[in-house]
Amino acid sequence: MNMNEENTENISDKQSLNDLLSQNNLEKIKEFVEKNNLNPKNFDLTNNNPLLFSIDNSINSIIEYFISIYENENLNFEIHTGETPLFISLKNENFYISDILLNKGANINYINRFNETVLIYLFKKKLITEKSLNYLLKHGINVNLTDISGNSGLIYSLYYQNEIYTKKIISYYVFDKDFILNLLTTSRNKLTLKNKDLNYLLEQQYNRINVNNKNINGDTALLVAIKQQRKNFVRLLLNGNADINCKDIEGKTPIIYAAEQNDFDLLSLLIQLHGDVNETGNNCKSALNYACEKGNINIVKLLLKNNADVNNKDIKGKCPLITSCEYGFENIVELLLTNNKININDTDSAGRSSLIYSCRKGNINIAKMLIEYGINVFVEDKFSNNAFYYATEKGYYDILKLLLQTCAVSESNKIDKKAFGGSDLLIATINNRVKIINLLLEMNVNIDETNRDGKTPLTIACIKGNENLVDLFLQHGANVNCKDNMEKTPLIYACEKGYSSIAQLLISYGANVNEIDYKEETALFVSCEKGYYEIVQLLLDNGAFVNEKGGIFNYSPIIIACKNNKYEIIKLLIKYGANINDHDIEGKTVLIHAAILGLERIINLLLANNAIVYTKDNKNKDAVEYAKEKKYSRIITLLQN
Fold first, then answer.
1. Neighbours of 276 (CB within 10 A)
2. If DSSP states are collapsed to H, E and C, what string results for 319-377?
3. Torsion of CA 594, 598, 599, 605, to 10 degrees
4. DSSP of 32-48
5. Are 349 and 381 in contact (CB under 8 A)?
6. Which position among 243, 270, 283, 533 has the lowest Cβ density within 10 Å, counted as fewest Cβ atoms?
7. Which residue has the higher pLDDT, 21 or 110?
8. What does the alpha-carbon distance between residue 213 and residue 151 come to, in Å, rounded to a whole number?
9. At residue 110, what are phi and psi to the nearest 5 degrees?
10. Of 285, 286, 372, 367, which is closest to residue 330 (Cα–Cα)?
11. How does pLDDT run across 121-155, given as a tens digit for each residue?
């Protein structure tokens, strides 16, 4: 017989045995086992194992027969699912067989490959019953053993929210038969048991079950009960020596969770049982910090009444007052301010005070309260911004007005300088807060205050094309010829953007049309470059120097217009007396530039106005030579004729 035939026969034998097991025919099973000389050593460790298969499928007499075969063998073997004979018998509530297995050496506290006891296995498979739990407790199951996640049977009973099972586990170990008999004996003998002695006895009983075991999340049974909001177990666990100040992996205590869950009754119970209200989590938040986040005034009152630290700062440096202002809980802010231990000027890690947060959120009622209690309105955060800045940026007119009224008018100029954006007036201009701008102007703030780029409110209004603001600032005496860090004037910016009406307005207020920037470019230069005909004419009509050169190549307005193919602009410049034969730093004339670019129409215009054809540049080339290089045949003919 070859190997394949032998394997086929073995498989057939197993199938035949399983068939017999299913038929519950003990005599035939015995005959089969004896005939095939089967013993535990050649039983496989799968679901087809005869003992395991019989426990799952056969009558007790057959199961007993196979147990007898294991007389001198280990009954604590397991298959790939982690099940042992005892696991399966208890899963099926076959306590008769369970008794036999235990008597034959099965270990009720056996831990399988998944680090599970039979109690944990039954809980996780949701196969636990009241009967099987009673059996396990009666036979000494160790409820303190945990699985790979660190969860004990007690914790699993809480996870699966079975009140009966949880109470049974705790009560069995605390109020077992021996303990009750001792109490009864004491009573019958009329012996006096002092409270201290009773408490000692109870403590001894409670120590039999470790309610403070932690799983990998740092959760004890008490924390699991609280997280699942199962208050009926909390007192039971606390009476069982549960650590009331235990912390999970986040460092949170039961009191912190009670506050976070807005559970007033639970919090009251925990405080009554001497829980620490000032414990903090890994984020440094206390119960009071969480209560202020949630906005529960009653919980805040309860915590403060029990000496919670009113100034505790979380990991971001936020105290309860700052948090309440950030979330806009007016009633809590008012309550905190009445506490004589409050540090009203505390700031967070960003340097922001409670007032700054109220201004950022636009809560004028909170801002009023803080000011009434004397908060410093001038505190700046790490970005050098204060309450005035944020009220302005967000457009909260009433809050800004309140802040300004709080200060002396003479001090208003001291508070509007900002490292990251200039004055409040600048911020209001950027965000087009017209109402706030008017308020600030009424308070006589510095209208020419500059930001880090040297830009004034007028400059920014010109860049944004906001003609109404430009007019407003000019009416209030803004410097029309102010220059920023690039030496650009408001007029140059208006001309760059093509805002002709703003340019006209600036000129009407005395803007110098011939001011130059850091590149020595004038308003006329940039207007010619962009091709804004109307603005070019406006500037020329108001005395702009038509031949003023600028830029790194020393271009005149007519050259820059030519380089950008602005025919009508060139025509206008010629009309106003532009030098048609002007040249740049390389000696190139307007005509040479037109020839290089192949601008036939402009060449015709220049020739019609007597441009000199054969002027040579620094490379000793004239317009004709450049046209030949580019092979512009029509332009060559035009120039030569």
1. 18
2. CHHHHHHHHCCHHHHHHHHCCCCCCCCCECCCCCEHHHHHHHHCCHHHHHHHHHCCCCC
3. 60
4. HHHHTT--GGGS-SSTT
5. no
6. 283
7. 110
8. 8
9. -60, 135
10. 367
11. 999 999 999 999 999 999 989 988 999 999 998 89
Q: Alpha-carbon torsion 329, 334, 337, 338, what sign?
A: negative
Alpha-carbon gap, residue 346 to 556, rounded angstroms? 60
Q: Residue 380 has what DSSP assignment? A: -
Which one, of 315, 317, 381, 310, lies nearest residue 344 by Cα?
Answer: 310
DSSP symbol at 409: G
Length of the chain measured in residues: 641
Tokens of 497: 């953007």
Of 374, 264, 229, 256, the C-alpha closest to 314 is: 256
Q: How confident is the model at residue 329 (pLDDT cuts 50, 70, 90)?
A: very high
Average pLDDT over residues 183-198: 49
Cβ contacts of 446 within 8 Å, gap of 6 or more: 413, 416, 423, 425
CB 368 within 8 A of CB 391: no
Query: Which helix or strand (DSSP H or E) is residue 135 part of?
Result: helix 130-138
Kindly state the average pLDDT of the residues 168-178. Answer: 64
* Six token digits for residue 537: 């004419």
Report which of 247, 250, 226, 227 is spatially closest to residue 238, judged by C-alpha positions: 226
* Domains within the chain, CATH numbers bracketed: 244-343 (1.25.40.20), 345-444 (1.25.40.20), 447-579 (1.25.40.20), 580-641 (1.25.40.20)
Distances (CA, A) of 550 to 69, 493, 536, 553: 109, 16, 16, 7
Does the pLDDT at position 35 exceed 90?
no
Mean residue pLDDT across the chain: 88
Taking the CA atoms of residue 222, residue 223, residue 228 and residue 234 in that order, the dihedral angle to the nearest 10 degrees is: 30
Model confidence band, residue 406 (pLDDT cutoffs 50, 70, 90): confident
